[in-house]
Records
---
Amino acid sequence: MTSIDLNADLGESFGQWILGDDDAMLGLVSSANVACGFHAGDPSTLRATTERAATSGVAIGAQVSYPDLRGFGRRFVDIEPSALTDDVLYQVGALEALCRVAGTRVRYVKPHGALYNATRTHTAQARAVVEAVRAYDPALPVLGLPGSELLRVAEEAGLRAVPEFFVDRGYTPEGGLVSRREPGALLDDAGAAADRLVRMLDEGVVRAVDGTDVSVRAESACVHGDSPGAVAMAQQVRDALARAGVEITAFAP
């Protein structure tokens, strides 16, 4: 692989509560998964984030979530599929308005947190998310975990399904993400995380928490903007990709 997209979760500050360094991250990534107000991000934060992303030439994706500000979208919600579809439509539309004012647009959709994890195996919720995207704009790609129900259903519906790799998250032997409540969920060694990404690109595998290798192919790699040392990790990832001759390019320019 000679190119890959590098994305980060941004726009997650709320009022006077600041999370992450969006300005620095926007100088390092090619795509920004921007919160839509349901798990994080107030309207002023989201407007500023979309404006800075547009100025930086960074592609904007709508990071949709359960309505869970208190839990930062990391708690599963057993929501009726039709209501979830409406929630996703609402979030994409809200972010689209701010993008239009900034002279850009929403270019893809990615679930956040517990919704992302749920749509790996929860077919009804995966279909609800896909139905929202298809109804809004069937040309919008959907970003998700390789082998997930979300990507399978997206392909089935004729949408572009984009597999994603997590640079700074631990993997289970089944190819899922280690729960944040368990050891090995987050990687804080930037050099090791960068090397792991290069190995995934070269060999199509990632080392799981039990020491086994899991098959992974991806078109986009995520560095969490809210993780400690996120900027340093993103920079080391960029440097490692440059040394490997891999170009960083948005998958949905």
Note: Residues 81-101 form the longest helix (21 residues).
---
Amino acid sequence: MRENRLRTLWRQGEAALCAWLSIPSSFSAEIMAHTGFDCLTLDLQHGLIDYQAAVPMLQAISTTGVTPLARVPWNDPGVIMKLLDAGCYGIICPMINTVDEAAAFASACRYPPVGIRSYGPKRAMLYAGDDYPTAANDTVLAIAMIETAAGLTNVDAIAALPGIDALYIGPADLSLALGRSQRTDQTDPVLVEALETILAAARRHGKIAGLHTATPAYAHAMIEKGFQLVTVATDAGFLEAEARRVVKAVRGNHDFGQAAAPY
């Protein structure tokens, strides 16, 4: 079975650096896979990627040792299973509010007897190896997004579920859910407390805590705090930021605004 680099890093007590992919292009995915990130997440929720675009992107990523993840649009077993069959090594599921929702999500990621995942790994066996069917349950990751008031209230019980490997914070939605201004690199005391609550729940139950960030400085600070899955911006954000930087450098000191976006 091909290594899941994230599990290896976490066993060593290290953090994994991730980037979000929202551009439906195998070439841009291939470029991102060669830049040094530990994992890449295909965003099928807010990005422009659908399943037909996702498969060649996964094929491009598989030419490297980068671990491929996907954020699904919703807690839909059919979509989750199809992306795992395509070779994703982890699923990030948005808007997990309750223990029952988390349990249903985790179950869709695992074969019986511990889950309900239907058999048919298709491309996953080409990517991972012939032993995929017997090793997949211990290799793929079920990562629950905590980004609502209900999810925050139930975070300890969600973290306690055996099938959930990590909690991932969606800072934009969590900010809105708690009545605060939408921001990625949050310094609002209300959000800082929420982040610490989620991190503490993950640690208490031996799980990984993850977070989306917009800048290297904030990402580094969150790693120092104990987050072990840290995303820094997106492919689209990197492209826009660099394009704006070049235009500004050529034309002079005009203000073209910020390029960074949460997703």
Note: The radius of gyration is 18 Å.
---
Amino acid sequence: MGIEKYECTGEYMFSIPHNSDLLSSLKGAAEQLGIGAGVFTVIGALKKAVIQYYVQDRKKYHRIILETPLEIASGIGNIAVKDGETIVHCHVVLADKEGRCLGGHLGEGSIVFAGEAYIRALDPKIIRKYDDTTGLNLLSI
């Protein structure tokens, strides 16, 4: 395991627009701020959500579409670059009105009711590379 020391180059807090796609908004913010490496948290609520579960033996994501209002009980992730493209990797725990939670890898199509994010930029850039063993694009430090 290679562990590298990264320096914080900036910290940012912002609101995520109502009716926007959460994953696209996080990616857009990272690109607008020029962040090629970072970590973030996000809280708020979604009008609907798409989460994904990685099926390890098939090396494929299974999509779960939740067509109901949900609280973002926890949202964490990182920002890296793959083939010149900004990659936002986010995991969420979502709670329904009864407090029941579901979680997974955030997918496109998760529509924001209200959202707030914190991004901490790191230096240097972090790259993602395909890993044959897992079938995932993992961090390559």
Note: The beta strands are 7-16, 38-55, 60-66, 70-82, 85-95, 101-106, 111-123, 127-131, 136-140.
---
Amino acid sequence: MLDLIVPEWPAPSHVRALSTTRGGGHSAGRYASFNLAAHVGDDPRAVAANRALLCSRMPAAPLWLKQVHGTRCIGIDATAADVEADASFARVPGQACAVMTADCLPLLLCDEAGTVVAAAHAGWRGLAAGVVEATVAAMSVPGARILAWLGPAIGPAAFEVGDEVRAAFVDADAAAAAAFAATADGKWLCDLYALARRRLARLGVGRVYGGGYCTHGDGKRFFSYRRDGATGRMASLIWLDA
């Protein structure tokens, strides 16, 4: 049986969203069992079966992006599959936005009226470069009218980074220092959730939900690239019901 996470947030009833976990699929070994990525070395037949199982829960197949830790946000109705981007938005019912992650932060958004939805892949590089800002801008809705949900990502107790990562945020925003805690070996523990919330708040997005997961710490439920190296990918998806 699929193990799915459904956001607990006050989105309009016709906005549908979910995040997958690693449970309930057809993949084996390090990809066990619900890996949705075709680029990580898994058996292509298992990936196809997993994607078909996911699609059986949705109105149509999602747009799978070629994610590159960038800031490009594309409209689904104007693109083809396998486009190089790290976020997408949709205004047409039945068109699903999707991002795949295995420690990076999946961010799902909708407006309070349910006229537009979006999904963003927000690892530290994307957050620092402005993927949140690019996605909100593409939605063309004031931040005060947007709801955001933070899906499963590596937690602040597990994400150790170097000075260059901290500098990428603090040099542009001194208050971002609150999202970093020094370690005994001269590194920093980085809170992706806090960084995303700060970026959203600066855009006027105050209604932010989720953010209580750690992919690194829960190996039974989540894939984690930092923990395991070669591993599968989970998906976070959002769409408008017809």
Note: The mean pLDDT is 96.
